Each structure stands twice: as C-alpha cells, then as structure tokens.
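Re: the request from the purification team.
They wanted to know what the chain is likely to look like in 3D before they choose a buffer screen. I agreed to run a prediction and write the result into the notebook, where they can find it.
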Amino acid sequence: MRQPTLRLLSIALLATAPCLRAQDVFIESVRPVLARHCSTCHNEKMLSTGLNFDSFRDESLAKRSPEVWPRVLERLVAGTMPPPALPRLTEGELKSITGWIRASFPIPPPAAASPSSRVTIRRLNRAEYNNTIRDLLGVVAAPASDFPMDDSGYGFDNIADVLSLSPMLMEKYMASARKLSRLAVYGEPLPSQPSTPEGTVRGH
C-alpha cells in the first residue's frame, strides 16, 4: 500500500511543480519590481490610472486581471513607465517582469500600420521644453514656467493624444522664441546702473 501511495504523491508533486515555479518567479522576481517602481503611484490610496499593484500579492491574484499586463508590457517596452522623472528599471528588472508577462499572457504581435493609420505628433511638455532650451541654446532660462499647465492622461503628462496646442500656448511659444533668440545671440542684459543726481560726484 505504501508504494502506490508514494507514486500518487510523486505524480501530484510533478503536476504542480510548474505552477509552484511560476509562483516563485512572480514572488521573487516580479513582485519586488512592482513594489519598488510601480506601487509608489499605483497603490490602494492613489490608484493612478485605476491600478493598485499592491493587490497582486501572488501570481494567482495577478492573473485575475489579464487586461492589465499587456498595457504594462507596452509601457515598459516603450520606456514610459516609470515616468521619466522616476528611477529607471535595471536591465535585469526589466527582463524579469517583461519575461513573466510574455510567458503568462497571450500577447498578440503588434498589427502592421496601414497607410491610413494616424500618428499623433507629440509636442514637448513644460519640463521637456525647458530642458531642451537649456541643452540646445546653453542659456539659463525656464520659459515654460509661464506656459499653461500641461494636460495629463493615465497619470502622465507626456502622451501625444493628450498634449493639446491651444492658441494661448502658441502665443507663448512665439514670445518665448523672440526672447530666447536674443538671449542666445547677445546673452543676458547687463544690470542697469543707478542714476546719480546732476552736479553730484559719484562716491560722495
């Protein structure tokens, strides 16, 4: 009786081994990356874009939301998640989480763009504009501080379909261009000298 029982137990363990290994991969390699880089914004209190990564305590819970992970994969591969201002994933972290997503969910290949596909031209947001002006012209200025606030979507302010170009912003661009062209050519204006009353000697 003991030998058949041992065989049945061995078969049961072999059958569950892949599941256990997958759980180990998620808990050891994926969940720490989510906690370190994603849960800052996507948690129970903030719920940025409606996501709470803290709720995915193990792989079985993560797989109850299959619609989430293709979006996460797309953001990670494009480099838009985490947002540019936050620390980037290391190469090992990126491989761990993208490898788990691809192995766990059927991700269809990207559809080929048709000739009629619309590609939105993305403008710079305020932070990107200031940084570009500094690097391109070498001037100390922050002209975008006077621009209207950038629109945001899904928790980000660098999405092409969200960043509109209003008439007021275009006027700000033109005024900024005139000011920056003078700064780039002539530099900062000299401070004005205080005027002295007529007939007095400077220093007395």
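For the purification team: The longest helix spans residues 2-37.
Please add any questions underneath this entry.
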